[in-house]
Specification:
4-stranded parallel beta sheet; single chain; alpha/beta
Length: 92
């Protein structure tokens, strides 16, 4: 049996899109492991609802070596900046 490396994911944003679409599907797929969730507010709601993840409060925390892929679920006007930073950090 071939063991493939799981794709470690960082999620930018913890609004309706992340909670109702992205996170439920990503956490059910064994090929992916959601490691970090960036939320602006320091409430750590993401970590409380998804205890296998770590809440972070700076986008740069998603650009660490342990993260392979960043999923952007923030407001539309932030997509360009966050996507550019993720691509430049090699998070495809």
């Amino acid at each position: 049996m071939i063991h493939e490396k799981r794709v470690n994911i960082g999620i930018a944003g913890f609004g309706m899109s992340a909670k109702t679409f992205h996170l439920p599907f990503l956490t059910l797929d064994p090929r992916f492991q959601v490691k970090k969730i960036f939320e602006r507010q320091k409430s750590n709601h993401a970590e409380q609802q998804f205890p296998e993840t770590t809440s972070v409060h700076e986008f740069e925390a998603l650009l660490t070596d342990e993260i392979d892929l960043v999923v952007i679920t923030t407001l539309n006007q932030t997509h360009y900046d966050f996507c550019k930073r993720a691509i430049l950090a090699g998070k495809m």
